Amino acid sequence: MGWLARFLSFLLFHLYFHASSSLSFSFNSSFSAMLCQHDQSLALLQFKKTFSIRITYLHSPWESYFPYPKPYPKTESWKESTDCCSWDGITCDLETGNVIGLHLSNSLLFGTIYSNNPLFFLLHLQSLDLSYNDFNNSHLSPQFGQFFNLTYLNLSSSNFGGEFPSEISYLSGLVSLDLSLNDFLILETTIFNKLAQNLTQLQELDLSFVNMSLVAPSSLMNLSSSLTYLKLRYCGLHGKIPDISHLSKLVTLHLSFVYSYGRSMIEIKPMTFDRLVRNLTKIRDFRLRGVNMSMVAPSSLMNLSSSLSSLALILCELQGKFPDNIIQRPNLQLLYLTDNEHLTGPIPVQLGRLSCLDYLDLSNNKLHGPIPNSIFKLVDLTVLILSSNNLTGEASPATCKLKSLQILDLSNNSLNGFIPQCLGNFSNNLSVLHLGMNKFHGTIPETFSVGSSLRYLNFNGNQLQRKIPLSISNCRNLEILDLGNNNIDDSFPHFLGTLSKLQILILKSNKLHGLVKGPTANYSFSKLRIFDLSRNKLHGPIPNSIFKLVDLTVLILSSNNLTGEASSAACKLKSLQILDLSNNSLNGFIPQCLGNFSKSLSVLHLGMNKFHGTIPETFSVGSSLRYLNFNGNQLQRKIPLSISNCRNLEILDLGNNNIDDSFPHFLGTLSKLQILILKSNKLHGLVKGPTANYSFSKLRIFDLSRNMFSGPLPAEYFDNFKAMVNSDVKMEYMRDPNNSYDYSVSLTLKGLEIELVKIQTLLTTIDLQYSTLTGEFEQLVDLTFLQVFRVSHNRLEGPIPEGNQFNTFDNTSYEENLGLCGFPLEKCNSRESQQSAASKEDDSESKIGFGWKAVLAGYGCGLIFGIAMGYVVFKTRNPAWFVRMVEGFQKPKRFKN
Ligand SMILES: *[C@@H]1O[C@H](CO)[C@@H](O)[C@H](O)[C@H]1NC(C)=O
Ligand SMILES: *[C@@H]1O[C@H](CO)[C@@H](O)[C@H](O)[C@H]1NC(C)=O
Ligand SMILES: *[C@@H]1O[C@H](CO)[C@@H](O)[C@H](O)[C@H]1NC(C)=O
Ligand SMILES: *[C@@H]1O[C@H](CO)[C@@H](O)[C@H](O)[C@H]1NC(C)=O
Ligand SMILES: *[C@@H]1O[C@H](CO)[C@@H](O)[C@H](O)[C@H]1NC(C)=O
Ligand SMILES: *[C@@H]1O[C@H](CO)[C@@H](O)[C@H](O)[C@H]1NC(C)=O
Ligand SMILES: *[C@@H]1O[C@H](CO)[C@@H](O)[C@H](O)[C@H]1NC(C)=O
Ligand SMILES: *[C@@H]1O[C@H](CO)[C@@H](O)[C@H](O)[C@H]1NC(C)=O
Ligand SMILES: *[C@@H]1O[C@H](CO)[C@@H](O)[C@H](O)[C@H]1NC(C)=O
Questions:
Q1: What would the pLDDT profile of 510-546 be if each residue is shown by its tens digit?
Q2: Torsion angles phi and psi, residue 240, rounded to 5
Q3: Which helix H or strand E contains 193, and what residues bound it?
Q4: How far is the CA of 599 from the centre of ligand 3 (A)?
Q5: What is the 30 CA–ligand 2 centroid distance (Å)?
Q6: 354, 461, 671, 733: which could join 758 in a potential S-S bond, CB 3.0 to 4.6 Å?
Q7: Alpha-carbon distance values, 642 to 236, 617, 639, 655 (Å)
Q8: Who lines ligand 2 at CB under 6 A?
Q9: What was the pLDDT predicted at 700?
Q10: Which parts of the sequence belong to the Leucine-rich repeat-containing N-terminal plant-type domain (predicted)?
């Protein structure tokens, strides 16, 4: 719609020009060489000087990522003693020479705009576009209210902040106002109402991502009925959507709201919805997200205008059968019914009649049955996403008729049979092919061909067998390849090393065998950043050349049968965030340098190998480590004091070694430590009580069993455990936040040593069995949150507290304490059993998951990857970007480069 506003303004200028020229003919201005007025030229040059030129959206290796036309510094062309009317971004009134248009969108401007900025001298401005720059969280100056003749104002995504000035409501001639994507801008009710009431000419309004949490939704009723375009996405409104059916000229309506804890924060009544859709007779683009429509019958959608071209209802709690009445919208180009977990039924066959459709996303509902063949008649489809339903049947070779497809995502369904061979090369435009988490068997198609556009290929979580086809190496654009969790029975696919853009390679949980081959000159794997070969049958040593892949951030080789020593060459990987070599047969010493080689390392897992010698002593201040696991080796001697430098440590598992030391009370200073496992070592002496500095205040899992501790039960620590009960813990699994890597630990549950591959944040255990602890535990009455409590095989005395969960623990929790009495009579019915069940399930689920939506940054325009994983985008100053791109709220036509 931007073009419409610009067209209108152009029309206005045109009329203005003709009107004024007929009124006042001036004999010299129309012939002067310089059209530009000197004072305005000066103001512009001074305006230019208030900024530096800077790329601000990304500060990472992914700088190339930019989901909009490539920015360029328009003001660079502004030179003194040239006609300012000829400068880039400037429009002048041809008659008066006044600067009436300033269009500096996407111009890399960085700096603060204060109220005395020379910009505010340009009072003749009619059109002002400063969108997509970085004004350093400037307060939106009241001076903007002085541009009385302004019809078009666009300050979208330009990092303005502070209180929204009421003076903007002076701009009563505004036709288009876009202040979207300024997350720190706060707009309150009284000002919004002034704005709504005074801007009577307004046709376009976009306040998405402006903080309107203080605005009463009923204020929307004040909006001018001249509006044709209204976008209010993620602006913090909450409550009920009021009746806005007076906005009957709307062509575009986007309303998105935050959706959290599994429910919408805003609702629409069936009556209101009905009135709205009946009155929006001109609507073409209608998108709601996070609006509770559970009371709205899907049949109400019937009343939506028949000229509709885009319909999105996301997270709207739609209930019941797929609303097949929408199929009578022959102009529909985009249909996006996603994340409505109560939307059921089969995909209607009649969808095949929507011959204009080029974007179809029905993901994350409860649709079942087969994919109707009629869909494959929609030959203009560029995007087909049916993931996360319960679709069954086979993937039809007719899919290959969709020659314009750029994205095909059928993942996470119950599709079975063979993957059609033709899927390897049916569309030259295909960038994303995701068939993961289905029940496909047979082999991987062998038809991938030269010229393929594939960037993302995912067959994870099927039952595919045999070989990784050589033809995948034809996909020269491949950035992500995930074939994990299948039955592939092949040797290591060294040939993938020729894919010079490959950044993520996941082959975990297959039957790969033989030796791991490292990169060579011809098979260089030169861009590899994430490499997961875990749970295969690879053997032999880890090739040293892997450690030349200095861009690696994640290296997971766990659960194979790798042998040999862990080379100190690993310490060259200075960008590493995760190093997991656990569950192999590695031996020798752990290289000292592993304690501090990478400032970004957050996971170091060397558990279940045959390492001996001592724990590295080089952990240093500034460490990012959150997870450190050396469990199940033959490590000796002491727990190094330097571990207390790892201020971010959440999990420390040193169990099942030969550590011969006293209790490492110094670990109590680690204020984020939640899990401490030291079981089955030779630790001895007193388990010291806490002091102010040594508090273990976040501990939830505390396992000291099978050591040689003596003295009283460290009940003071348990008091600190209570802290976590009060905090608002959600049922989640503990994982590395940057890489969605699930932390694991090994615990004894139900008498079995279990590797918990996922740790619930609610799991709490105390295990002190098999030592020589003494004393009583009356003071433990309050530990009502414990799920596992074991003190058997000690020398404890006195009664077990009654009337609380202590009686629910299995008697094996207490046995072999000669002085302990009042053993529980009931069998354990605590959540322990669920815990261990949960720990075993889901082995197939990705340990690291990379959805293409997060990866495919900015697919709304030209599929620009930039391989930005979700978190990279989140780290930029504007989190709004992420949401926008994941939603795919772009016009599908812009997919083409
Ligand atoms: C504002 O500018 C941005 C970036 O150029 C553009 O995408 C958007 O459509 C504009 N808004 C309006 C209402 O024209
Ligand atoms: C003619 O142009 C000059 C400079 O462009 C300006 O200073 C002067 O005022 C103009 N004269 C009239 C009569 O407009
Ligand atoms: C950006 O804002 C910060 C904080 O207000 C300020 O210290 C800094 O000088 C500003 N930088 C520019 C270039 O305006
Ligand atoms: C604003 O527009 C009016 C009417 O077109 C015109 O007379 C006036 O000079 C303009 N004001 C400025 C500051 O350009
Ligand atoms: C409405 O606009 C007019 C004309 O620009 C202005 O004089 C008046 O102060 C504005 N009213 C409010 C409430 O902002
Ligand atoms: C929005 O503004 C309110 C009121 O100033 C503030 O409490 C809240 O934290 C802000 N929300 C966001 C997401 O910034
Ligand atoms: C519905 O739209 C018509 C114009 O198309 C308008 O006259 C009427 O007031 C609107 N209804 C409501 C309830 O606002
Ligand atoms: C999916 O569909 C299959 C076959 O109809 C059925 O057996 C299975 O229970 C369904 N799964 C879910 C999660 O609904
Ligand atoms: C692992 O490799 C060693 C040495 O090659 C061999 O003895 C052992 O049987 C292998 N273990 C498994 C589980 O394959």
A1: 999 999 998 988 899 999 988 999 999 999 999 999 9
A2: -115, 145
A3: helix 189-198
A4: 29
A5: 10
A6: 733
A7: 46, 6, 9, 18
A8: 26, 28-29, 32
A9: 75
A10: 39-93
